[in-house]
Amino acid sequence: MISKLHELHKQKKPLSVVVYDQLYKLIMDGAFPPDSQLPTEPELAKKFGVSRMTLRHALALLQEDGLVKNIHGKGNFITKFHHNDHMDGLEKLGNPLYKCYTGNIDDIELIFRIELLTDYAMQVLHQQTTAVVALERWYKSNDKIVAFAFTMMPIEAVSELNLDLQSDKQVLDMLENKVYELANSSTLEIKRSNSVNTPSLKYQLSHSEECDLILESVYISDKYPVVYNKYYIPIEFSQMKIKTSK
After folding, report:
1. What are the extents of the domains in the chain?
2. Mean residue pLDDT across the chain
3. In this structure, what is the dihedral angle of CA atoms 87, 90, 91, 95, given to the nearest 10 degrees?
4. Measured between alpha carbons, how far is 12 from 164 in angstroms, rounded to an integer?
5. What's the CA gap between 47 and 60, in Å, rounded?
6. Exposure string for 206-241, b = 16+ CB within 10 A, e = fewer
7. Which among 18, 47, 17 has a CA at the least distance from the CA of 32?
8. pLDDT beyond 80 at 147
9. Is residue 152 within 8 Å of residue 224, measured between CB atoms?
10. Domain 97-237, CATH
């Protein structure tokens, strides 16, 4: 057993992990502050004396840790939240977008329409309703679309929640905040999607074609969800955290 441990100890650390360790220390020591852009991949590869493939493996590890995000066509950037150990995780009831999106959001545009009940709506809302309110929320940063949410709500919930659909402010406050205060539970399912940028939607997301997709059913009663949400977050701005305890 001792000889096996000795052999393991003699094995060299992979070069990509060595580069990862050095970059990690530089980031944590503040050499690259939050929101700053890393040097280009050729510059970093030359700095550490490694191939670009080795460097990309190291950057991929940093991206997995949520320390670095890659913006297609622009480069690699340091995230804002690598010191935020107290951010709520997905295990706590609340709007999941703000727990996962690592960029800035300064405006939300709301669009809604009334639709007839479809088989899909009946499946996700778990009830036979007379009609469905379909709502789109377009999250913006500096006038660019950076995230998207699609919501379905049974028409009966409009009166139950005392909603004035003509008041964007009231509807947004309900969807973003109050419904979670009223709710007693929710269910979440996390997927990966590349279908958010479709011609049928009013806008296109400003960044990556690929998004993390959070499917959420929010329950006020145990019978059926009061809202069903689909949150689309570009992968380079998505950081998911779940706290567990025994």
Report:
1. 2-78, 97-237
2. 86
3. 90
4. 65
5. 18
6. ebbebbbbbbbbbbbeeebbbbbbbbbbbbbbbbee
7. 47
8. yes
9. no
10. 3.40.1410.10
* pLDDT tens readout for residues 48-74: 999 999 999 899 888 877 788 888 788
Q: Supply the pLDDT for residue 231.
A: 96
pLDDT, tens digit (0-9, with 9 covering 90-100), for 16-37: 888 988 998 898 888 888 888 9
Cβ-contact 90, 242 below 8 angstroms: yes
Q: How far apart are CA 107 and CA 145, in angstroms?
A: 9
- Matching CATH number, 2-78, of 1.10.3720.10, 3.20.20.370, 1.10.8.60, 1.10.10.10: 1.10.10.10
Q: Is 0.85 surpassed by the pTM of this model?
A: no
